[in-house]
Write a structure and sequence with these properties.
It is a single chain. By secondary structure, this protein is an alpha/beta fold.
C-alpha cells in the first residue's frame, strides 16, 4: 500500500470503519503531498499515526489510541485542523504548544487523559477558532495568554480539575460564542465590576458544577447583546470554514463545533450545535439572593438552568419575556412566592422544573403548563392546583418559617392572641353557662317541684287515714 501513489495521493478518508491498526506503521506516513487524513470512528489501537508534514487536516478522533502526542506533530507548520479527541491519550502537553502552527484553526484534544497545567497559548499571532480541552484531567489555572487568541470562537474546558476564578479577561474577545467551564473548581464571584469585558458575541455559557459564589451577574445579563437576538429561522450549525491552496486547487475546510451540556435534565453530547441554540447554565454553584429582573431581556435564550444554588425571593415575572425558551430549571433553591402567570407566555417551553423550593399558591394553568408532571413542582408544600393532588379551594398555604432574628417577637405576638382567645372564650363560656344553669334550675323546679308537692299531699292523706 505504501508504494501506491505516494507522490499523488492528496486526501485519504477512512472514517466510520472497523480498522484496528496500520500494518508496518512507519514513523511518518509516506504520502509526501497528503493534505487531508481522516481516520475517525474506527477501532485504531496503539500510538498515534504521524501524518506527513504536508498535512493540513488531520483527524483521528473516536478510536482507542494510547500514549502521548508525538513531538513530530508539534512541528507540523501546515496544520489547520488537529482532532485527537475521544481516545485514551495521556501525558502532559509540552510548553512548545504555545508556538504551534500559526495557521492552526482547530485544536481538539477533548475526552482523553491528559493532565498537568494547560500550557500558554496564542503567544504568537494566530487564527485559532476552536480550542477543546474538555473531559481530561488538566489542573491549575487558565493561561492568561488565551486572551491573545483574537479569532477564538469556541472554548471548551469542562470536566477537568482547573482551579481558578472566572476568566473575565476573555471578555474582550470579539468572536467568542461558546464558553464551557462546567465541572471544574472555579471559585469566587463572577465579578460584575469587570463589566467593560462584555463578551459581545457570547451565545452559550456553561459554568455548572463549580464553586462560584455571590450574586448572579445582572450587569452581564444587561450587556450580553448576542443572547438578546433571536434567529428562529437559521437552519445552519456552528462551524469553522476556511479555504487554502494545494496543488493548484482551492480547497475548503468545514469543521462542526461540538460540546457536552445538560439540557432538559439530561447530559447531552452535541455533535453539532445549531446556530440558533442559545443557553445559560449556572447550575450547582453557590449563587445567592434574587434572580435579576434583567435576565428577562435575554429573549433569544433556549435554555436557562439556575438550579442547585441558594437563590431566594420571587421568580421574576420578566422571565415571561423569554418566549423562545424551551427548558427552564430553577429547582433546588430557596425561591418563595407564587409562580408568575406570565410564564404561560413561553409557548415553546418543553421542560420546566421548580421542585425543591418554598413556592406557594396556585400553579398557572393552560398552554405548556398543561403538559408538565408532578415532578416539575415536587417538594413545594405551599403549591396547589393541577397537576398536584392539592386543590387550591380547600388548601391553605402555610406561612413561611420566621427567621431566628424575629422568632422571639413573633412568639410573643402569637401568645398575645392565644391569651386573648382564652380570655374572651372564658367570659363567653361563663355567661352561656350561667344562662343555661338558670334555665335548667327553673325547669327543674317547675317539673319536679310540683310532683314533690303532690306526692306530699298523698302521703299526708294516707297518714291521716
Amino acid at each position: 500500500m505504501w508504494n501506491i501513489s505516494k507522490e499523488t495521493l492528496g486526501a485519504l478518508t477512512l472514517s466510520g470503519n472497523f480498522l484496528t491498526g496500520i500494518d508496518q506503521l512507519p514513523i511518518v506516513l509516506p504520502w509526501c503531498n497528503l493534505y487531508r487524513l481522516e481516520l475517525d470512528f474506527n477501532m485504531l489501537k496503539g500510538p498515534i499515526p504521524i501524518p506527513p508534514p504536508s498535512t493540513f487536516q488531520y483527524s483521528v478522533s473516536r478510536n482507542k489510541l494510547i500514549g502521548e502526542i508525538p513531538p513530530h506533530i508539534y512541528n507540523m507548520t501546515s496544520l489547520l485542523l488537529l482532532d485527537l479527541s475521544s481516545n485514551s491519550l495521556s501525558g502532559r502537553i509540552p510548553p512548545c504548544m504555545a508556538y504551534f502552527s500559526e495557521s492552526l484553526l482547530i485544536l481538539n484534544l477533548g475526552s482523553n487523559n491528559f493532565d498537568g497545567p494547560i500550557p500558554e497559548t496564542c503567544i504568537m499571532p494566530n487564527n485559532i477558532r476552536v480550542i477543546d480541552l474538555g473531559e481530561n484531567q488538566f489542573q491549575g489555572h487558565i493561561p492568561r495568554s488565551l486572551a491573545n487568541c483574537m479569532m477564538l470562537e469556541h472554548l471548551v474546558l469542562g470536566n477537568n480539575q482547573i482551579d481558578d476564578i472566572f476568566p473575565f479577561w476573555l471578555g474582550p474577545l470579539q468572536h467568542l460564542k461558546v464558553l464551557i467551564l462546567r465541572f471544574n473548581r472555579f471559585h469566587g464571584e463572577i465579578g460584575s465590576w469587570h463589566i467593560h469585558f462584555r463578551f459581545p458575541k457570547l451565545r452559550i455559557i456553561d459554568l455548572s458544577n463549580n464553586e462560584f459564589i455571590g450574586d448572579l451577574p445582572f450587569e452581564y445579563f444587561q450587556n450580553w447583546d448576542a443572547i438578546k437576538l433571536t434567529e428562529a429561522n437559521d437552519p445552519w450549525y456552528k462551524q469553522a470554514n476556511s479555504t487554502f491552496e494545494m496543488l493548484g486547487y482551492t480547497l475548503v475546510l468545514h469543521y462542526l463545533y461540538s460540546m457536552i451540556m445538560t439540557n432538559k435534565g439530561m447530559q447531552r453530547f452535541y455533535q453539532k450545535i445549531p446556530n440558533r441554540f442559545i443557553a445559560i447554565d449556572f447550575s450547582y454553584n453557590n449563587f445567592v439572593r434574587q434572580i435579576p429582573i434583567s435576565i428577562g431581556n435575554l429573549k433569544g435564550l433556549h435554555l436557562l438552568n439556575l438550579g442547585g444554588n441558594n437563590l431566594t425571593g420571587d421568580i421574576p415575572s420578566s422571565l415571561g419575556n423569554l418566549t423562545q425558551l424551551k427548558a427552564l430549571d430553577l429547582s433546588q433553591n430557596k425561591l418563595s412566592g407564587e409562580i408568575p402567570w406570565q410564564l404561560t407566555r413561553m409557548t415553546f417551553l418543553e421542560f420546566f422544573n421548580v421542585s425543591n423550593n418554598h413556592l406557594i399558591g396556585p400553579i398557572p394553568q393552560g398552554k405548556q403548563f398543561a403538559t408538565f408532571s408532578n415532578a416539575s413542582f415536587d417538594i413545594n408544600p405551599g403549591l396547589c392546583g393541577t397537576p398536584l393532588s392539592r386543590a387550591c379551594g380547600s388548601f391553605k398555604a402555610l406561612p413561611p418559617i420566621p427567621s431566628s432574628s424575629k422568632q422571639g417577637s413573633t412568639s410573643i405576638f402569637n401568645w398575645k392572641f392565644v391569651l386573648m382567645g382564652y380570655g374572651s372564650g372564658l367570659v363567653i363560656g361563663v355567661s352561656i353557662g350561667y344562662c343555661i344553669t338558670s334555665w335548667k334550675h327553673e325547669w327543674f323546679v317547675r317539673t319536679f317541684g310540683k310532683r314533690q308537692r303532690k306526692w306530699t299531699r298523698t302521703e299526708r292523706m294516707r297518714l291521716g287515714s
